[in-house]
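Field reference: sequence -> structure
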Amino acid sequence: MLAVGPGDADRSDQLAEAVLEVAKPADATVVLAHVFTSNEYDEVLDRLDFDTDLDTVDPNAVAARHSTIHDMESILEEHGVDYEVRGAVGEHGPTIVDLADSTAANRVIVGGRRRSPTGKAVFGSTAQEVMLSAPCPVTFVRHDE
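Structure field:
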């Protein structure tokens, strides 16, 4: 499972390389997961012109229209790797862990950037939470800044 977010657009090549390294030799299906907080979800619904008059909008459909997911889909298709798209609404770390559990992921790949200990304490770290709580091994792809 590859967990992506809006901050991952500038590192899609690095994330794709990590995914291909694991998925291609194993002939695995990659789950492209995008988790939105409630506020992010509402903003994305407005920006992507979803009909919010409907009772519910499927988070999978919202994730599938997100540009970061499109970038990864193109790369996986180019390399002949099967994938499916999953979207979810909730706090990033716990929801990524829940998706990994519900999809029976063999590995989770997350991106991030180097932060100071103070930065992690003040702002938290989604990647750190996933690494500590995921039901499977986690690969962290650090952004080259």
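Note: Strands lie at 2-4, 30-36, 83-89, 108-112, 138-142.
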